[in-house]
Specification:
The two termini are 45 Å apart. Helices cover 57% and strands 4% of the residues. The protein contains 27 helices and 5 strands. About 2% of the residues have low confidence. The chain is mostly helical.
C-alpha cells in the first residue's frame, strides 16, 4: 500500500526558484508552487500543507506579512514555515525566527541541504503531533483513574455513612438529605451575602461531601444506647455525647495515614467536633459559644436538627415541617446562629421539598444541573489554559473563586413568576420580555451584597457573569447589547456552557437534545453570532469531555 505523501507549498515571486524547488522535491513530496502571498491564501482554502517554503522579498505581501497572517489564523498557525531569502543578514534571520518560522535558508541553496532540512522539520512535526496525542491520552488516563478513585472514595464514604445510619436506626436517608440541606444553605448564604467572605474561600464540594462523616463517632457507641426506644438516662446521654470526640479521633487516625493535609478531612473533623455546639455556649463537647463555633459546625447544627425533627426516631415520631420551623425559629440566638436561621426561614419551603423527597425549585437549576455546570466550566477552563485562546487572561484568575461565583450567575431568576418557568409550551415573546426585565434584579442583589463586604473583589466574577452571560457576540443580546470582546470573558464562557447544558437537559416544553445535536447547534448556528468563535473552537476541542460528563450524570 502506497503511503500518503506530504504536501509542501513553495511561495516565491521568482519563477526560476519555483521550478528548481519543484524539481528537487517532486520525487518525495506533493509540491505546489505559488507566486505570491495572496495566491497562497487562496490555495489554503482548499488544501492544508505539511510545510510552507516562503520567500521574504516579494511585492505586495512580504514574507513577514504572510507569516503574520498565517500565525494569527487558527486553521494555519500550526503549519511550519521555512523562510527563503537571498539576503544573508543575521538580523533578518532573527526577525524571521521571531515571527514564527522554524528555519531559515539562503539562496542559492544546496538541494541536498534543502531535502535534509525539510525531512528534519517534517519529522519534528510528526514527533510533536505524537507527543500531543500521547499527552492527551495520558491526560485521559489520569482523568479516568482520578474518576475511578473519586468513585471509590465516594463508595467508601457512603458505606461508612450507611453503617452509621443502620446502627443508629435512622431512617429517611439522613446523610443524603443533610448534604442537600447544606448545599441549599450555602447557595442561599451566597445570595444574601451571609458570611460570604469566609465561605467563598471554601471548597464547597469537599465541605458538603465531608458532612457524611459528621456522626462517624457513633460507630463507637454501644448498640443499646443507639437503638434505645425511650428517652436516654443522664448517664446514657453523657455516653452518647462522646461520639463527637470519638469521631474526631477516627478522622485523626485517617489523617495520620495520609501523605499530606486533606481539605476533606479538615472539614470532616470540624463538623464532627462542633455540630452539637450551641450559640449560647450550652452545647458539647467543648461548650463553645457564638462565632467561636466554626461556621461549618453552626451550619451543620441547623440542618442536622431540622432533619432530626422532621424524621422518625426510635424515641419519637416525626414533627411536621411547620412545627420544626417554629422550633428552629425559637432557637435563634440560643441554639442556632441567628443569621443562619434568618436565611433558613426565607427558604424554609425549599427545605420542606427536600425533606419530603420532592426537591423541585423552579427559580433555579437543580442541584444536579449545577454540578454539571461546574464540571463543564472546569473542562472549559482547563481547555483555555492549554490553548492559545485567552490563556494569559484566564491564568490570572482565581479559578476556585470563579467556579464558586458561577453558582449565582442566574440569580435574577429568583424574581421571575413561577408560571413562566413551569410552562409546558414554548415561552411567548411577553414571557421572554418578562425574564429580560428581571435581569437587573440579579445585578441589584449582587450590588447589595457587595455593599456588605470588606473585599468587593470577592463578587467581581459573579457581577461579570450576571451582567453578561445573555449578551451575544454579534451585539443582539441583553441587557446592554454588548458586542464582541466588549462582553466580559467570564460571560462569553458561561454563555456557551449554559446553552450546552440547557440543550442537553429536559425542559417542561421540550425533550433534551443529544450531545451531537447540541454540538452541531453551537458550531453551525451560534458560532460568530451568539458565541465568541475562539471559545467555540476550544469547546469543540473538548466536546468529547463534555459528552462524557453529560452521559455520566
Amino acid at each position: 500500500m502506497e503511503l500518503e505523501r506530504e504536501i509542501i507549498i513553495m511561495v516565491d515571486d521568482d519563477p526560476t526558484y519555483l521550478t528548481v524547488v519543484k524539481n528537487t522535491l517532486a520525487d518525495k513530496y506533493d509540491i505546489f508552487t505559488v507566486p505570491s502571498g495572496s495566491k497562497l491564501f487562496q490555495i489554503l482554502e482548499k488544501i492544508t500543507p505539511s510545510l510552507i517554503l516562503l520567500d521574504i522579498e516579494m511585492p505586495g505581501m512580504s514574507g513577514y506579512d504572510v507569516i503574520r497572517k498565517l500565525k494569527n489564523t487558527d486553521e494555519t498557525k500550526h503549519i511550519p514555515v521555512i523562510f527563503f531569502t537571498a539576503t544573508a543578514d543575521p538580523k533578518n534571520e532573527v526577525k524571521g525566527l521571531d515571527s514564527g518560522a522554524v528555519d531559515y535558508i539562503t539562496k542559492p541553496f544546496s538541494r541536498e541541504l534543502l531535502l535534509k532540512r525539510i525531512e528534519l522539520h517534517l519529522l519534528l512535526e510528526i514527533q510533536k503531533k505524537e507527543l500531543v496525542k500521547y499527552s492527551k491520552d495520558l491526560e485521559e488516563m489520569v482523568n479516568q483513574k482520578t474518576q475511578e478513585i473519586s468513585e471509590l472514595h465516594a463508595a467508601i464514604l457512603k458505606t461508612i455513612a450507611e453503617l452509621v445510619e443502620s446502627r443508629d436506626d435512622i431512617t429517611g436517608k439522613h446523610i443524603e438529605k443533610t448534604q442537600k440541606y447544606l448545599f441549599l444553605l450555602v447557595k442561599r448564604m451566597f445570595e444574601y451575602g451571609v458570611y460570604i467572605e469566609e465561605i467563598s474561600k471554601w471548597n464547597i464540594d469537599m465541605f458538603v461531601m465531608s458532612s457524611q462523616l459528621h456522626d462517624v463517632g457513633k460507630i463507637s457507641i454501644r448498640d443499646d444506647i443507639l437503638t434505645k426506644k425511650g428517652k436516654l438516662t443522664d448517664e446514657e446521654f453523657e455516653e452518647m455525647k462522646k461520639h463527637s470526640l470519638l469521631g474526631a479521633g477516627i478522622i485523626e487516625k485517617i489523617e495520620k495515614n495520609t501523605t499530606k493535609g486533606s481539605a476533606f478531612l479538615k472539614y470532616a473533623k470540624l463538623l464532627t467536633t462542633s455540630h452539637h455546639e450551641k450559640w449560647n455556649g450550652t452545647g458539647y463537647p467543648l461548650g463553645l459559644k457564638g462565632k467561636d463555633i466554626p461556621l461549618q459546625g453552626r451550619m451543620m447544627a441547623l440542618v442536622d436538627v431540622y432533619d432530626a425533627l422532621t424524621s422518625r426516631r426510635p424515641y419519637k415520631k416525626a414533627f411536621s415541617h411547620e412545627e420544626s420551623v417554629k422550633i428552629i425559629e425559637d432557637g435563634a440566638g440560643s441554639h442556632f446562629d441567628p443569621l443562619l436561621v434568618e436565611v433558613f426561614l426565607k427558604h424554609e419551603a425549599e427545605f420542606k421539598n427536600i425533606s419530603i423527597g420532592d426537591f423541585v425549585d423552579v427559580h433555579t437549576v437543580s442541584t444536579s444541573s449545577e454540578k454539571r455546570l461546574d464540571r463543564y466550566l472546569k473542562i472549559f477552563i482547563n481547555g483555555l489554559l492549554k490553548s492559545d485562546s485567552y490563556r494569559d487572561e484566564v491564568s490570572k484568575w482565581d479559578i476556585d473563586l470563579f467556579l464558586i461565583s458561577a453558582q449565582l450567575y442566574d440569580s435574577a431568576k429568583a424574581n421571575v413568576k413561577d408560571e413562566i418557568f413551569s410552562k409546558t409550551e414554548k415561552l411567548t415573546k411577553e414571557d421572554i420580555e418578562e425574564i429580560k426585565k428581571h435581569e437587573n434584579f440579579g445585578i441589584r442583589i449582587i450590588q447589595q451584597i457587595k455593599g456588605k463586604l470588606k473585599d468587593e473583589n470577592l463578587l467581581s466574577y459573579t457581577e461579570a457573569l450576571a451582567i453578561s452571560y445573555h449578551e451575544k457576540w454579534d451585539g443582539t443580546g441583553y441587557p446592554h447589547g454588548l458586542k464582541g470582546k466588549d462582553i466580559p470573558l467570564q460571560g462569553r464562557i458561561m454563555a456557551i456552557v449554559d446553552v450546552y447544558n440547557a440543550l442537553t437537559s429536559d425542559r417542561p416544553y421540550r425533550k433534551m437534545f443529544s450531545h451531537t445535536e447540541a454540538v452541531e447547534i453551537i458550531k453551525k448556528s451560534y458560532s460568530g453570532t451568539y458565541f465568541d468563535p475562539e471559545l467555540v473552537n476550544v469547546f469543540l476541542e473538548r466536546e468529547k469531555e463534555f459528552e462524557k460528563k453529560a452521559t455520566n450524570e
